[in-house]
Amino acid sequence: MTTQQSVQLSALSSAVEDLPPKKSISFVNSRDTVIPFPFGAFADKYENTSIDIAVSLPGESLDSTSLSSCLWRKISMTVHTSYSPMEVRVLSAHRLLLANSLLSACVLYVPKKRLAIVRVDYTSVIISPDIYWRKHPDHLRRFFWRFVHPAAGTRFVGIDPTAAPLTAADRAWVSKALDMINNAMFRLPSHIEEEKKYISEGLRVQVLDGKTGMFVPHLLFRPLSVNPRPFATSGMWVWKCLRDTRVIDSDTGAFVGEPDESMKMQVYKEVWRPVDYSFTSEVAVYERLEDELDAAEWVGLPRMMCGGYMGGREFEAWQAKAKQLAEERSAAGHPDGKTLPIQSILHVTSSWVFTKGIDYFKFERTHERFVVDLVGRPVTQFTSTLELILGFRDAIKGAFLLSIHPVPCLMRSYATGHSLMDALWMVHRDISVGNVMLVDKPAPEQFKGFLTDFDTVWMPNPEERNPAPNHDCYSEHLKDRVVSPAILFSLRARG
């Protein structure tokens, strides 16, 4: 460790001396430590990461052993003391977002005498003006205090209150549930051990059910796919999951209940979708399928068990509160008074609006989660030629149900008795070998293959059955459809 880094470590440590023990954070020199990718299932596929200083979780200590053991969850923030390109700092923040399921992540850039705070979310990077920490040590002290005392009441800034790592009790419950469904789900007895291999990396998440407005807990235990690229428009996480059927004991506060014998494994997906209407929501696709397809004609497509627009729900609640506050202030003769900041919305990013204004709201992203019923394996892992042929057959049937092309529409109309105008009028636009799946141990009457991954589907509004897809990435009418006068008032009042 160089003299300069020693001085920086000392300055950082002194800035947190006043924090209470439960909120105290520590700093560890990690320049010579290579930190693997957050998820062991993909550690060999994606690059490792190096950071200068790692910051512990509030109330916990940190050492080099934890860093080299793929424990990004032990880190709350990263610090870069030497010169590093912006992409390196963003990459370390993205690893924190993935590992801890954060809403945003913080990185400190401390080259010699100045300091910059870097905030990274799923749409952009915000960098503070330079802070000369030796001349203004209180700035750094206030930053750390606010970092561990967020307004949302979480452990530190950026934590999603609807997601948390699995506890020991959670892991034991998942393991027992997998043992119960082993014979019904897996082709070979050895497969059960593969399913349990990454339980320690799992999460307990709350999935919004758009039909009931309630949150449904699910336990994620095996990662299937993760997008390693910052700011990617496609899905961020795909996991195998189980619905948590336990209830809270009123006396102990612990979760109680045994796994149900009828429990089935499901697939969970989480995305940060652009708020722009030209980007299709997978939740909306599944909702359209549920509304317009009969059970008898459902083939080659998964069903959404629950899912919803977490960001949309929060945004609507914020709109109502902001409008009420604006009306109250106006009635009192103070139209330019206190407003409700848009940053209070957790599941919609606000970086563009905060830095550039309301006209840039179309660049923000909204948080979505959903769970589907079918667990499959890639079509390349077929066990027989017959299984391969039947799998492709059923996936093609599913594609016909989505297609807007004349021949498939006519075929569907002829087979189901629907008119041509009753067709769903969708285009998948990403049919590839990776999006055709085979069903493990399908029931005798169940289809053998299915089509998945609907995040690129073109789907018009029901009243807009226009067969020409609109490829405009940022629609001009977005502000009129989404942004209310309450938002404009709030931003105008702020400055």
Which helices and strands occur, and which strands form pairs?
Blueprint: H1 3-15, E1 27-29, E2 34-35, E3 49-50, E4 53-56, H2 64-68, E5 75-80, H3 86-100, E6 105-109, E7 116-120, E8 125-127, H4 137-147, E9 163-165, H5 168-180, H6 182-185, H7 191-196, E10 203-208, E11 215-226, E12 237-243, E13 247-248, E14 255-256, E15 266-274, H8 282-292, E16 304-309, H9 310-331, H10 351-356, E17 365-372, E18 376-378, H11 385-402, H12 406-416, E19 436-439, E20 449-451, H13 478-482, H14 485-494
Parallel strand pairs: 5-6
Antiparallel strand pairs: 1-4, 2-3, 4-5, 6-7, 7-8, 9-10, 10-11, 11-12, 12-15, 13-14, 15-17, 16-17, 18-19, 19-20
Tell me the Rg in angstroms: 25 Å
CATH level 1 class label of the domain at 3-147: Alpha Beta
Mean pLDDT: 81
Counting helices, strands and paired strands, the structural category is alpha+beta
Question: Total number of β-strand segments?
Answer: 20
Q: Looking at CATH, which topology of the domain at 3-147 would you report?
A: tt1808, chain A
CATH architecture name of the domain at 3-147:
Alpha-Beta Complex
Strand content: 15-25%
User: What summary fits the major beta sheet?
Assistant: 7 strands, antiparallel
Oligomer: single chain
Low-confidence stretches: 404-422, 465-495
* Largest sheet strand order: 9-10-11-12-15-17-16
Report helical residue fraction: 25-40%
In DSSP terms, counting alpha (H) and pi (I) runs of 4 or more, how many helices?
14
Distance between the termini: 44 Å
